[in-house]
Amino acid sequence: MKKEKITNKVLKVVERIARNEVEKTVLGRTAECSAIYHQPKRPKKREN
Question: Which NCBIfam families match (predicted)?
Answer without folding.
Answer: quorum_AgrD
